[in-house]
Amino acid sequence: MKNALQQSLMVSLVIAKLVIPFSILSEILQFYGVIEYTSFIFEPITQLLNLRHEVAIAFAASFFLNIYAGIAVAAGLSLTPYEWTIVGTFIAICHSIPMESAVLKKVGFPINVHWISRLVLGIVGAWFASLITPETLAGGIFNQELKTVQYDGFTDLIKNAVTNSAILCMKICVLVSALICIFELIKRSKTYNAYLQKHTYMSSLIVGGLLGVTYGAGILLKDFNSVKSEHKVYLLTFLMLAHGLIEETLIFLMFGSDVTVIFAIRMFLALMAVFSVWAYKTWQYKNKQTKELIND
């Protein structure tokens, strides 16, 4: 449990370094209207997703930096639960791309395939969410009534921004730390360890599902070496789209999003991607056999 607490502290520090400054920055940019002047560039995508164009700044933050940076920016935009469901779907699928590309490269996943597929599927997933989520979505158990805050000046803005970012950071850190501790308890289970001896790939699925690719990287890279070679491509394809399922889903629940939509879309896209890879490899194998028969 000591290791879990140490890891929780390290992850919490990373979250704080991202959430607090980006949350404050989002408030400042909104206060001075900077987002309105720059986010029109992304208007075609946001129109497709039925979102305000300033949401694209949150997309960019999550894509290039981290899911927590994207959440911090989005948290300052006073999004409705309907918008949070769409934003959450995109960010959950498409975040930390440069960082996670480095991790996936070490286990043999092509970087260009990773970048393109995550972006395209992120947009597709968010588009699905915009279609199936009711615009009158009331919100989740943690959601509060959305209010437009009027600040008396820059000092008042900073004061409120720091307070709000600290509260947001604390909620996320508590949630993530709890999941890390739960995973540590699962690892100590005799049933878990006995099952892993027969199904080594399950360890990678559990690590990726709970902690994600980035924060579970060390465990994931170690466990991945024990996975059968024919299973590796399917495992990577699934984890590329459906890692951190529990953690990220619960975070978006705090903002009142429809987490069943987010979870279902991520699982559907991940399973469809795995099926597509299987179908392609099967076609390759049969095509190769046919050519060999013709040559003989």
Automatic annotation (TrEMBL):
User: Transmembrane segments in this chain: where?
Assistant: 12-35, 55-75, 82-99, 119-142, 162-186, 201-221, 233-255, 261-280
Instruction: Give the record's keywords alphabetically.
Output: Membrane, Transmembrane, Transmembrane helix
Descriptive protein name = Nucleoside recognition protein
The organism encoding this protein is: Vibrio splendidus
